[in-house]
Amino acid sequence: MGNRRPPDRDVAPVVQRVRIRYARRGRLRFSSHRDFQRALERAIRRAGLPIAFSAGFSPHPKISYANSAPTGAASEAEYAEIGLTAARDPEAVRAALDSALPPGLDVVDAVEAHTSDFAQRLEASRWRIELVDVELPVAKAARDAFWAADHIEVQRMAKSGLRTFDAREPVAHLQVDPDSQAPCVILNVVVRHVTVTVRPDDVLAALRRVADLEPPVPPRVTRLAQGPLDEATCIVGDPFAPDRRG
Known about the structure:
Layout: E1 16-24, H1 33-47, E2 63-66, E3 74-84, H2 90-100, E4 105-112, H3 118-121, E5 124-132, H4 136-148, E6 153-158, E7 161-166, E8 171-178, E9 184-192, H5 200-211, E10 220-227, E11 229-230, E12 235-236, H6 241-245
Parallel strand pairs: 3-10
Antiparallel strand pairs: 1-3, 1-4, 2-3, 5-9, 5-10, 6-7, 8-9, 11-12
């Protein structure tokens, strides 16, 4: 059997890269990352954007993604980058994609890429975790027990099998606040991005382990921000800032 060679094609080069920030809201928080990939590719076609394609037997659109939130979590800070064969105004790209995507998958910001270290700027995430029917003193006691521990091992099933890891060290900030609009308390959590990503359900597993905190209702989780971390203030910054400066 001879060597297969990809067919010769004229592949238009990438002349501009546009980075977008999108939100996953409402019922569409249950959509998977693959669901969004398919939706974005359809939206690009509907919007008529000059997307670049790879070469080879199966050309695919030049789109890259970074640190997607787990299925079931809402998010205000998801990121993707698209390669275009002709320059477009980033705001026009944002508006066109937002109009072509279903409500709940909302493109909220876009910039032209001027830097090459975008993934490295996504150092941490800020999460809001709503605990319904949990009393404030109980949540505060669990927070205190969490901070008092030096190391909290939790387990999660991965593709390679059951993994055990520390869910305490990557947490830079954990605060408990009452919610004046609903009978729940809010956990405001900032988590550093490390080799084994610590997710909100891992933080909840750690609280369950050290303080037996077991919310009677499944928590509602939202990622509010993702970007560079100021260790002194635990503020998660805007990863687009270097690109805005050009």
